[in-house]
Amino acid sequence: MIALRWGRQRRDLPLRQSASARWLPWVLALMVYLAGLGGVGLTLLHDTLRAARGSLAASLTLLVPAEASPARLETVLAVLRQTRGIVSARLLPPAEVARLLEPWLGSSVVLAELPVPRLIDIRVEPDGGTDFAVLRQHLASVVPGAHLEDYQPWLAGMRAAARRVDGVLVAAIVVALLLMAVSAGFAARFDLVAQRSVIELLLLLGADDGDIAHPLAMRSLRLGLWGGALGAAGVLLTTIALGDAGSLIRSPAPPAAIGIADWRLWAILVGAVVAAGLIAMASARATVLRRLARMV
């Protein structure tokens, strides 16, 4: 047997590039695309919840029947302003009410001809200790049919739905990362099978398992970074294409948006690319070492 001394710097072994180099980057690109979209979705979800808490947690709306007299409206405003925990109460003018209802009713509808309730915008202290049950009784005694719209139930439902969506997105990201490792491991096994005779010869000449695993792992790293860059580019293009599409959703707190100037988007993209490369490298190395151990 001819034994060769393989020094630490001897890493350029004659292992040719196999067919896996053609399909592995595209598989990893798809996984990075899915994981990146999941990361962007998590960011938008948390931003939307934060914006909703900030804008609606201290906000209430009082709907007063359209037939209420100006005197009753003034009395209602006085009751609100004297209530503990209420910072301000403002009667919205008809023009502002029309602007708020325009997305649903259109601009051609004359609100004066419809029994549209008068709206009073109320700002409260988050921990002001307001007794809303007593407040509702006072308002009903002044103007029967007055309805105090509280956004807290809506926020609670939104938080519950967000937790479920959060779990789905996290699960999708984890699955994408696992599929990256599986794909890279499968490609490494394919390389070993395709070059089995060359690898057996190198082992006879004195190469150890690490010498053979290293170039295959580095190749997987390069393919992982290349595929990750393709997937990250797809996420970036998708983000640009969607733009502020969330503003089309009509809700008390419209969804947030993330743009190309947002550092979090770039952190997600760079993190996804690096993760693809490192996962591919680690999976390939582990697979090669495990398979070589069985060949001995």
Work out the radius of gyration: 31 Å
Structure class: alpha+beta
Output mean pLDDT.
80
Helix content: 55-70%
Classify the beta-strand content into a percent band: 5-15%
**How many strands?**
4
- Helix/strand order, N-terminal first: HEHEHEHEHHHH
Q: Distance between termini?
A: 15 Å
Poorly predicted runs: 1-11, 246-252
Principal-axes geometry comes out as rod-shaped
Number of domains: 2
Provide the spatial order of strands within the biggest beta sheet.
Answer: 2-3-1-4
Question: What oligomeric state is this?
Answer: single chain
Largest sheet: 4 strands, antiparallel
Total of helices: 8
Describe this structure in words.
This protein has 8 helices and 4 strands; from the N terminus they run αβαβαβαβαααα. The chain has helices at 20-56, 70-81, 94-105, 132-142, 152-194, 196-204, 209-242, 263-295; strands at 59-64, 86-91, 118-124, 147-150. The protein folds into 2 domains: 20-53 and 159-295, no CATH class; 58-150, Alpha-Beta Plaits (2-Layer Sandwich). The chain has a 4-stranded antiparallel β-sheet. Helix 5 runs antiparallel to helix 7. Helix content is 65%, strand content 8%. With 296 residues, it is an alpha+beta fold.
What is the element layout, followed by pairings?
Blueprint: H1 20-56, E1 59-64, H2 70-81, E2 86-91, H3 94-105, E3 118-124, H4 132-142, E4 147-150, H5 152-194, H6 196-204, H7 209-242, H8 263-295
Antiparallel strand pairs: 1-3, 1-4, 2-3
Helix pairs in contact: 1-5, 1-7, 1-8, 2-4, 5-7, 5-8, 7-8
